[in-house]
Amino acid sequence: MLLLMELDYYSYFLLFYCLIMMTVIVNIYHYITYQLLVILSAVLLGVCGKPCPFSRERMFPQNVKLTLNTSKDQGYTMEEAVHLRSLSPWSYRMDEDHNRFPSVIPQAVCQHQWCLDAEGNVNNGMMSVPIQQEILVLRREIQDCHQNFFLEKQLVTVGCTCTTPTSQPA
């Protein structure tokens, strides 16, 4: 204490300032250490495979804003029940996948191996074959509570048509 009393005002100020700075530095060190521990524990919890909490953000949106240019005449209309009136009729099977958008895609399934004639009788001279189209879908992959989205090609059967049978070489 004797040493402190012999110091002038400026020296007291410098000593006090140094003590405050040392306290601040120690507190910052403890704060950074605490933050690093919090981050490390969060990372370890994610790596250890804890179940992800359910949230609505994980679901695909029910409504998507889509802008279509309707000013052009497309030149075609969709007739009702064409899949049943075709000479190669088909039905639809719903392909459902909750990690894909759209989550439900109708897939055509040919009803017969052979085509029908105008009266609805089987025509063994013509085969019923599927018409397939490749489309882009949005695929969701969930890993460690994080969602990744990517485009993926998918082959979709859109209808059936009649063809001549392929002949086997003799």
Automatic annotation (TrEMBL):
Main subcellular localisation: secreted
Example of a GO biological process term: inflammatory response
SUPFAM superfamilies found in the cross-reference section: Cystine-knot cytokines
Listed GO CC annotations: extracellular space
Transmembrane segments annotated in the record for this chain: 7-26
InterPro entries with a match to the protein in the record: Cystine-knot_cytokine, IL-17_chr, IL-17_fam
Name used for this protein in its record: Interleukin-17A/F1alpha
Annotated organism of origin: Quasipaa spinosa (Giant spiny frog)
